[in-house]
């Protein structure tokens, strides 16, 4: 018996299947996930724009001599809101108001 016989025998031939078109359910799910992801990004941009507007107003009010401690708490609230959006991926209406 040849000890190298197993090296010369052909093994199983891999079967290559043609590429399949994704199912309609998969395409709908893909579209829904893209819409959700886009909405999340737009939401983050809106919150950042609101924060920048608020920070601009805070800056202008600080120039007018309004209490700095109150506005520092407002800034920390916006930073908390943005960090929650990044961490949780959702906007809590309570935290924005």
Percentage of residues in helical conformation: over 70%
As residue ranges, the low-confidence spans are none
| Form type | elongated
Radius of gyration: 29 Å
How many DSSP E strands? Answer: 0
Q: What gap, in angstroms, lies between the N and C termini?
A: 84 Å
- The helix tally amounts to 4
Find the structural class using helix and strand composition. Answer: mainly alpha
Oligomeric state of the chains present here: single chain
Strand content: under 5%
Mean pLDDT: 76
The major beta sheet can be summarized as: none
Compressed to H and E, one letter per element, the order equals HHHH
Keywords: Membrane, Transmembrane, Transmembrane helix
Transmembrane segments: 31-51
Short overview:
Keywords: Membrane, Transmembrane, Transmembrane helix. This protein is an all-alpha fold.
Verbal overview:
By secondary structure, the chain is mainly α. It has a domain at 46-97. It has four helices and no strands. The longest helix is centred in the middle third of the chain and has 40 residues, at 24-63. The chain is elongated and about 90 Å long.
Helix and strand topology:
Blueprint: H1 5-8, H2 24-63, H3 68-88, H4 93-96
Transmembrane segments: 31-51
Keywords: Membrane, Transmembrane, Transmembrane helix
List keywords for this structure.
mainly alpha, transmembrane, membrane, transmembrane helix
